[in-house]
Amino acid sequence: MIFKDFNFESNLQEGLDSMGFENPTPIQEQAIPIIQNNKDLIGCAQTGTGKTAAFLLPILNKLSVHPTDSVNTLIVVPTRELALQIDQALQGFSYFTSVSSIAIYGGSDGIVFEKERRALTDGANIIIATPGRLMAHLNMGYVKFDKVETLILDEADRMLDMGFVDDILKITTFLPKTRQTLMFSATMPSAIRTLATKLLHNPEQISISISKPAEGVIQGAYLVYDTQKNALIKSLLEGKELTSVIIFVSTKIKVKELERDLQKAKLKAKAIHSDLEQNEREEVLRNFRSKQLQILVATDILSRGIDIEDIGLVINYDVPGDAEDYIHRIGRTARAASTGVALTFINEFDQQKFLQIETLIGSEVKKIPLPPSVGVGPAYTPLVKIKKPFLKKKSFNKDRRPARK
Which of 225, 284, 328, 400 has the fewest C-beta atoms under 10 angstroms from its C-beta? Predict the structure, then answer.
């Protein structure tokens, strides 16, 4: 199948042609006709499968056929990074159309807030927003969503994990009850299905490659003590020809410490975390995208929602807390049928957690010996059960008191 089979308007198709889009991915092939038929949809697909284009293209085509001056589509996402990514993709797809859009997210100054207010009141066609920032505008009373025809919830499972369910339900009270609702999620826990029953009407369902890493990802793991991790990172990166490397770390403190160590080793590394101002975070990402920065050290906020091409190496400095998150983290590499490497550091306490990941993906990840310079790491024994101390059984007499010796 090719994109021209969808019979998009010529101006939208021209944009796709200029971007080199020829063949749709499986989720695009299945989702686009459903959305074009104005049906509700639950789409379950891991990161990197092309779901952003799957929902943007039919919306853009509809707005090309029926232009409007009001807000037509609301896209709600969990993070500002994902909001920016979707808006950037939208600008590319809509280059030859007259569709307008804006990304609305927190952490910006008053000038940006006023720009968002004007877009909401003057009627940008597509709004991409994080729940908290959107609620701040809605609570001021000037937002008019009475002509919204489509609501899209992207990364719905992550929004629930971040505690946004009440905000989402509140946002829907500002929208027309008769609308098209599309929900996209990388996983489909029961909480998502419960939310779907509240918001969607007789939805179609699509599931694409659930909980399986992309085929192009070469996976490996090191058994390493926490005190050896920074030495191992430097051993892996020093003196190598690097393109783009993302290192996912579990805590903000560790992110800052690793950034310092890598910079001392003369490696081009920068960290991104919640202590940075939004403009600082955006500058780091710009430099990483443009290859001016080789190594990005990040907390788990980037495991979904950042679409950066040609990432050659992903390192899990810590085993992800949730087995599903492993899929999203390593999904930053091997995008669009390319190849990449994903390495995970397993300490002595996280071995059972990593076994759950291997069970989820249906295969064992190769354990790579540590470089001699790093030393000897812990043994891999995730199935060893902790034995309880032996307790001598007490004997009781008829009235249940311990028998006298």
Answer: 400
